[in-house]
Amino acid sequence: MTKTVLITGASSGFGEACAKKYAANGYKVVMGARNVAKLVELQRQMPDPSKVAFAPLDVRYKDSIEHFFDGIPTDFREFDILINNAGLALGTQSAQEASLDDWETMIDTNIKGLVRITRKVLPLMVTRNRGHIVNIGSIAASWPYPGCNAYGGTKAFVQQFSRSLRSDVLGKQIRVSNIEPGLANTNFSLTRLKGDQQKADDVYENTKPLLAEDIADIVFWTTSVPEHVNINNIEVMPTCQAWGPLAINREMED
Ligand code: NDP
Ligand code: 8X3
After folding, report:
1. Burial annotation 145-161 (CB, 10 A radius, 16+ → b, else e)
2. Which residues carry out catalysis?
3. Which atom of ligand 1 is nearest to the CA of 89?
4. Which ligand 1 atom sits nearest the alpha carbon of residue 34?
5. What is the pLDDT of residue 253?
Protein backbone atom coordinates (compact mmCIF):
# COMPACT_ATOMS: atom_id res chain seq x y z
CA MET A 1 0.00 0.00 0.00
CA THR A 2 1.23 3.50 -0.77
CA LYS A 3 2.61 5.20 2.32
CA THR A 4 1.80 8.78 3.28
CA VAL A 5 4.27 11.32 4.66
CA LEU A 6 3.25 14.59 6.30
CA ILE A 7 5.87 17.34 6.14
CA THR A 8 5.64 20.65 7.99
CA GLY A 9 7.58 23.58 6.58
CA ALA A 10 7.56 22.02 3.11
CA SER A 11 7.81 25.30 1.20
CA SER A 12 11.60 25.62 1.44
CA GLY A 13 14.90 24.02 2.38
CA PHE A 14 14.85 20.61 4.07
CA GLY A 15 11.06 20.34 3.95
CA GLU A 16 10.88 21.02 0.23
CA ALA A 17 13.73 18.58 -0.46
CA CYS A 18 12.01 15.92 1.66
CA ALA A 19 8.74 16.46 -0.20
CA LYS A 20 10.52 15.93 -3.52
CA LYS A 21 12.44 12.90 -2.23
CA TYR A 22 9.38 11.08 -0.91
CA ALA A 23 7.29 11.98 -3.98
CA ALA A 24 10.05 10.66 -6.25
CA ASN A 25 9.91 7.41 -4.29
CA GLY A 26 6.18 6.95 -4.79
CA TYR A 27 4.88 8.20 -1.43
CA LYS A 28 1.74 10.24 -1.00
CA VAL A 29 2.93 13.59 0.32
CA VAL A 30 1.05 16.09 2.50
CA MET A 31 2.69 19.49 2.75
CA GLY A 32 2.06 22.36 5.15
CA ALA A 33 3.55 25.85 5.29
CA ARG A 34 2.51 29.49 5.25
CA ASN A 35 3.75 30.14 1.71
CA VAL A 36 0.91 28.46 -0.14
CA ALA A 37 1.97 29.81 -3.56
CA LYS A 38 5.19 27.83 -3.15
CA LEU A 39 3.26 24.69 -2.22
CA VAL A 40 1.06 25.09 -5.32
CA GLU A 41 4.19 25.34 -7.46
CA LEU A 42 5.80 22.35 -5.72
CA GLN A 43 2.74 20.18 -6.25
CA ARG A 44 2.79 21.10 -9.94
CA GLN A 45 6.44 20.01 -10.23
CA MET A 46 5.94 16.60 -8.64
CA PRO A 47 6.06 13.42 -10.74
CA ASP A 48 2.41 12.64 -9.87
CA PRO A 49 0.62 15.74 -8.53
CA SER A 50 -2.45 13.63 -7.68
CA LYS A 51 -0.38 12.00 -4.92
CA VAL A 52 0.44 15.37 -3.36
CA ALA A 53 -1.85 17.37 -1.07
CA PHE A 54 -1.25 20.59 0.79
CA ALA A 55 -2.97 23.10 3.03
CA PRO A 56 -1.93 26.37 4.64
CA LEU A 57 -0.24 25.87 7.99
CA ASP A 58 1.15 28.24 10.56
CA VAL A 59 2.34 25.99 13.38
CA ARG A 60 2.35 28.92 15.82
CA TYR A 61 -1.43 28.99 15.97
CA LYS A 62 -3.79 26.27 17.23
CA ASP A 63 -6.56 27.39 14.85
CA SER A 64 -4.26 27.17 11.86
CA ILE A 65 -3.26 23.64 12.88
CA GLU A 66 -6.93 22.63 13.18
CA HIS A 67 -7.74 24.12 9.75
CA PHE A 68 -4.69 22.43 8.28
CA PHE A 69 -5.79 18.97 9.39
CA ASP A 70 -9.40 19.69 8.34
CA GLY A 71 -8.08 20.69 4.90
CA ILE A 72 -6.23 17.42 4.24
CA PRO A 73 -8.19 15.19 1.82
CA THR A 74 -9.56 12.09 3.55
CA ASP A 75 -7.49 9.70 1.44
CA PHE A 76 -4.30 11.41 2.67
CA ARG A 77 -5.04 11.14 6.38
CA GLU A 78 -3.39 7.84 7.25
CA PHE A 79 0.02 9.24 8.09
CA ASP A 80 2.85 6.72 8.07
CA ILE A 81 5.57 9.33 8.55
CA LEU A 82 5.51 12.77 10.16
CA ILE A 83 8.46 15.06 9.47
CA ASN A 84 8.36 17.84 12.07
CA ASN A 85 10.55 20.24 10.13
CA ALA A 86 8.90 23.69 10.34
CA GLY A 87 11.22 25.91 12.30
CA LEU A 88 13.48 28.88 12.32
CA ALA A 89 16.15 30.88 14.05
CA LEU A 90 15.78 34.63 14.48
CA GLY A 91 18.71 36.87 15.33
CA THR A 92 22.30 36.28 16.39
CA GLN A 93 22.53 38.79 19.25
CA SER A 94 23.71 37.75 22.66
CA ALA A 95 21.04 36.91 25.21
CA GLN A 96 21.15 40.27 26.94
CA GLU A 97 20.50 42.07 23.63
CA ALA A 98 18.30 39.62 21.74
CA SER A 99 14.69 40.46 20.92
CA LEU A 100 12.28 38.81 23.34
CA ASP A 101 9.72 38.75 20.51
CA ASP A 102 12.17 36.74 18.41
CA TRP A 103 12.70 34.31 21.28
CA GLU A 104 8.95 33.86 21.67
CA THR A 105 8.52 33.27 17.92
CA MET A 106 11.20 30.56 18.02
CA ILE A 107 9.58 28.94 21.05
CA ASP A 108 6.10 29.17 19.47
CA THR A 109 7.34 27.63 16.22
CA ASN A 110 10.10 25.19 17.13
CA ILE A 111 8.65 23.93 20.40
CA LYS A 112 4.93 24.64 20.66
CA GLY A 113 4.31 24.08 16.95
CA LEU A 114 6.19 20.80 17.00
CA VAL A 115 4.42 19.44 20.07
CA ARG A 116 0.99 20.46 18.80
CA ILE A 117 1.51 18.78 15.43
CA THR A 118 2.86 15.72 17.21
CA ARG A 119 -0.16 15.61 19.52
CA LYS A 120 -2.48 15.63 16.49
CA VAL A 121 -0.65 12.87 14.62
CA LEU A 122 0.66 10.54 17.33
CA PRO A 123 -2.76 9.29 18.55
CA LEU A 124 -3.61 8.35 14.94
CA MET A 125 -0.37 6.40 14.71
CA VAL A 126 -1.04 4.69 18.04
CA THR A 127 -4.52 3.67 16.86
CA ARG A 128 -3.03 2.12 13.71
CA ASN A 129 -0.02 0.80 15.67
CA ARG A 130 2.33 2.08 13.00
CA GLY A 131 4.21 5.25 12.21
CA HIS A 132 7.47 7.13 12.29
CA ILE A 133 8.02 10.64 13.61
CA VAL A 134 11.13 12.41 12.38
CA ASN A 135 11.95 15.61 14.21
CA ILE A 136 14.39 18.09 12.74
CA GLY A 137 16.63 19.26 15.56
CA SER A 138 20.00 20.92 15.24
CA ILE A 139 23.59 20.61 16.36
CA ALA A 140 22.69 23.75 18.36
CA ALA A 141 20.83 21.42 20.75
CA SER A 142 24.14 20.12 22.09
CA TRP A 143 26.79 22.61 21.05
CA PRO A 144 26.21 26.23 22.09
CA TYR A 145 27.81 29.17 20.35
CA PRO A 146 27.45 32.91 20.92
CA GLY A 147 24.02 34.06 19.79
CA CYS A 148 22.50 30.59 19.74
CA ASN A 149 20.73 31.09 23.11
CA ALA A 150 16.96 30.58 22.66
CA TYR A 151 17.35 28.80 19.31
CA GLY A 152 19.65 26.22 20.86
CA GLY A 153 17.23 25.91 23.75
CA THR A 154 14.36 25.08 21.41
CA LYS A 155 16.40 22.39 19.69
CA ALA A 156 17.51 20.94 23.03
CA PHE A 157 13.81 20.58 23.75
CA VAL A 158 13.36 18.76 20.44
CA GLN A 159 16.21 16.39 21.34
CA GLN A 160 14.81 15.47 24.74
CA PHE A 161 11.19 15.41 23.55
CA SER A 162 12.20 12.97 20.81
CA ARG A 163 13.82 10.64 23.34
CA SER A 164 10.85 10.91 25.68
CA LEU A 165 8.44 10.09 22.86
CA ARG A 166 10.36 6.86 22.30
CA SER A 167 9.88 5.95 25.93
CA ASP A 168 6.17 6.60 25.70
CA VAL A 169 5.58 4.56 22.55
CA LEU A 170 7.70 1.59 23.61
CA GLY A 171 5.68 -1.51 22.83
CA LYS A 172 4.03 0.11 19.83
CA GLN A 173 5.31 -0.22 16.28
CA ILE A 174 6.10 3.50 16.23
CA ARG A 175 9.54 4.94 15.63
CA VAL A 176 10.91 8.34 16.59
CA SER A 177 14.08 9.90 15.21
CA ASN A 178 15.81 13.22 15.75
CA ILE A 179 17.98 14.51 12.91
CA GLU A 180 20.39 17.26 13.96
CA PRO A 181 22.03 19.10 11.07
CA GLY A 182 24.81 21.65 11.25
CA LEU A 183 25.65 24.32 8.70
CA ALA A 184 23.26 23.89 5.78
CA ASN A 185 22.59 26.27 2.92
CA THR A 186 18.85 26.88 2.83
CA ASN A 187 16.78 29.99 3.53
CA PHE A 188 17.63 29.48 7.21
CA SER A 189 20.27 32.24 7.40
CA LEU A 190 18.24 34.68 5.31
CA THR A 191 15.40 34.28 7.80
CA ARG A 192 17.70 34.44 10.80
CA LEU A 193 19.34 37.62 9.49
CA LYS A 194 15.98 39.23 8.72
CA GLY A 195 16.31 39.26 4.94
CA ASP A 196 19.87 40.60 4.70
CA GLN A 197 21.03 38.61 1.66
CA GLN A 198 24.65 39.75 1.92
CA LYS A 199 24.99 38.66 5.55
CA ALA A 200 23.24 35.38 4.74
CA ASP A 201 25.64 34.72 1.85
CA ASP A 202 28.56 35.51 4.17
CA VAL A 203 27.54 32.63 6.45
CA TYR A 204 28.33 30.15 3.65
CA GLU A 205 31.22 32.02 2.02
CA ASN A 206 34.24 29.77 1.31
CA THR A 207 32.52 26.75 2.84
CA LYS A 208 30.94 23.65 1.39
CA PRO A 209 27.83 23.45 3.56
CA LEU A 210 25.24 20.71 3.73
CA LEU A 211 22.56 20.95 1.08
CA ALA A 212 18.85 20.43 1.67
CA GLU A 213 19.08 17.30 -0.47
CA ASP A 214 21.73 15.83 1.87
CA ILE A 215 19.32 16.08 4.77
CA ALA A 216 16.40 14.73 2.68
CA ASP A 217 18.54 11.69 1.81
CA ILE A 218 19.33 11.13 5.50
CA VAL A 219 15.70 11.54 6.55
CA PHE A 220 14.60 9.16 3.81
CA TRP A 221 17.20 6.58 4.82
CA THR A 222 16.16 6.92 8.46
CA THR A 223 12.59 5.96 7.53
CA SER A 224 13.69 3.23 5.10
CA VAL A 225 15.65 0.97 7.45
CA PRO A 226 13.79 -2.20 8.53
CA GLU A 227 10.92 -1.58 10.93
CA HIS A 228 12.68 -3.27 13.87
CA VAL A 229 15.44 -0.61 13.60
CA ASN A 230 14.97 2.82 15.23
CA ILE A 231 17.51 5.51 14.43
CA ASN A 232 17.34 7.57 17.62
CA ASN A 233 19.57 10.46 16.72
CA ILE A 234 21.76 11.58 13.87
CA GLU A 235 24.05 14.57 14.24
CA VAL A 236 25.44 15.68 10.90
CA MET A 237 27.82 18.46 9.94
CA PRO A 238 29.46 19.33 6.66
CA THR A 239 33.06 18.15 6.54
CA CYS A 240 34.15 21.78 6.70
CA GLN A 241 32.55 22.23 10.14
CA ALA A 242 33.71 20.97 13.56
CA TRP A 243 33.66 22.01 17.21
CA GLY A 244 35.73 24.90 18.49
CA PRO A 245 37.85 24.92 21.62
CA LEU A 246 36.19 25.90 24.89
CA ALA A 247 36.27 29.67 25.23
CA ILE A 248 38.30 31.14 28.08
CA ASN A 249 38.22 34.79 29.05
CA ARG A 250 41.82 35.84 29.77
CA GLU A 251 40.98 39.40 30.74
CA MET A 252 39.85 38.58 34.27
CA GLU A 253 40.64 41.15 36.90
CA ASP A 254 41.77 40.05 40.35
P1 NDP B 1 14.18 27.27 5.50
O2 NDP B 1 14.05 28.67 5.98
O3 NDP B 1 14.64 27.03 4.12
O4 NDP B 1 12.80 26.50 5.70
C5 NDP B 1 12.03 26.68 6.85
C6 NDP B 1 10.65 26.09 6.61
O7 NDP B 1 9.91 26.20 7.84
C8 NDP B 1 9.90 26.83 5.54
O9 NDP B 1 9.22 25.92 4.70
C10 NDP B 1 8.90 27.67 6.33
O11 NDP B 1 7.69 27.81 5.59
C12 NDP B 1 8.66 26.77 7.54
N13 NDP B 1 8.13 27.54 8.66
C14 NDP B 1 8.73 28.50 9.39
N15 NDP B 1 7.87 29.01 10.29
C16 NDP B 1 6.69 28.32 10.12
C17 NDP B 1 5.43 28.38 10.73
N18 NDP B 1 5.16 29.26 11.71
N19 NDP B 1 4.45 27.54 10.31
C20 NDP B 1 4.71 26.66 9.32
N21 NDP B 1 5.89 26.55 8.69
C22 NDP B 1 6.87 27.39 9.09
O23 NDP B 1 15.15 26.55 6.54
P24 NDP B 1 15.61 25.03 6.75
O25 NDP B 1 15.07 24.15 5.71
O26 NDP B 1 17.06 25.06 6.97
O27 NDP B 1 14.92 24.74 8.14
C28 NDP B 1 14.12 23.62 8.38
C29 NDP B 1 14.38 23.13 9.78
O30 NDP B 1 15.76 22.74 9.87
C31 NDP B 1 14.17 24.15 10.89
O32 NDP B 1 13.53 23.49 11.96
C33 NDP B 1 15.58 24.57 11.26
O34 NDP B 1 15.67 25.01 12.60
C35 NDP B 1 16.33 23.30 11.04
N36 NDP B 1 17.76 23.37 10.87
C37 NDP B 1 18.32 24.12 9.88
C38 NDP B 1 19.70 24.15 9.72
C39 NDP B 1 20.39 24.98 8.70
O40 NDP B 1 21.56 25.35 8.90
N41 NDP B 1 19.77 25.29 7.58
C42 NDP B 1 20.57 23.32 10.55
C43 NDP B 1 19.88 22.60 11.58
C44 NDP B 1 18.53 22.62 11.71
P45 NDP B 1 6.81 29.14 5.48
O46 NDP B 1 7.71 30.33 5.70
O47 NDP B 1 6.21 29.05 4.10
O48 NDP B 1 5.78 28.98 6.55
C1 8X3 C 1 21.16 25.48 12.51
C2 8X3 C 1 22.58 25.11 12.67
O3 8X3 C 1 24.80 25.80 13.66
O4 8X3 C 1 23.42 27.55 12.72
O5 8X3 C 1 20.37 24.77 13.37
O6 8X3 C 1 22.82 26.53 14.81
S7 8X3 C 1 23.42 26.31 13.51
Report:
1. eebbbbbbbbbbbbbeb
2. 151
3. 34
4. 48
5. 78
